[in-house]
Amino acid sequence: MTHEDAEDAVQEGFLRAYQAFDRFDPAQAFGAWLNRIVANAALDLARRKKVRTAEELSESMATAFRDPAEDRELNERLNAALAELPPRARSVIVLHDVEGFTHAEIGELLDIPGGTARSDLHHARQKLRRLLGNLRG
């Protein structure tokens, strides 16, 4: 993590703390509460950065042969299954699994609580598994 990333994480953490201040329990230690929020913001930033900067396989790296028709069929099945999901479920899967957003960020984007985004993702994945069935068959 670079110095700039750390600054971004601290800034994001303080913003989240400000937004969640009404939920702060005065019986807790304020420093521990704030530290946990900032640490989570740093972890979220690191996860997003890892997902978005994943290196592609080198052109020279040997890969197993895959029939292009197989990839096309898999892609068509996946697109058809995604199309059958309700719009919010589809959005949650794409935002989390493709774009790398956290549950909290998805919640902000879709104007739902982060816990609801997590639950929606779980249920959407279950339905997607049922729709896709056995991919090897």
Q: What's the CATH architecture of the largest domain? A: Orthogonal Bundle
Quick one: CATH superfamily of the largest domain? Answer: Winged helix-like DNA-binding domain superfamily/Winged helix DNA-binding domain
N→C terminal distance: 43 Å
- Class from secondary-structure proportions: mainly alpha
What is the strand content? under 5%
Can you write the helix and strand succession as a string? HHHHHH
> What's the number of helices?
6
Oligomeric state = single chain
Radius of gyration from the alpha-carbon trace, in angstroms: 19 Å
Helix content: over 70%
* CATH topology assignment of the largest domain: Arc Repressor Mutant, subunit A
**Which of globular, elongated, flat, extended, rod-shaped describes the shape?**
elongated
Q: Can you count the beta strands?
A: 0
Our count of domains comes out at 2
The CATH class designation of the largest domain is: Mainly Alpha
Average per-residue pLDDT, rounded, comes to 81
Described by strand count, sense and barrel closure, the largest sheet is: none
Unreliable residue stretches: none
Structure overview:
The chain has 137 residues and is mostly helical. 71% of the residues lie in helices and 0% in strands. The termini are far apart. The model has no long low-confidence stretch (mean pLDDT 81).
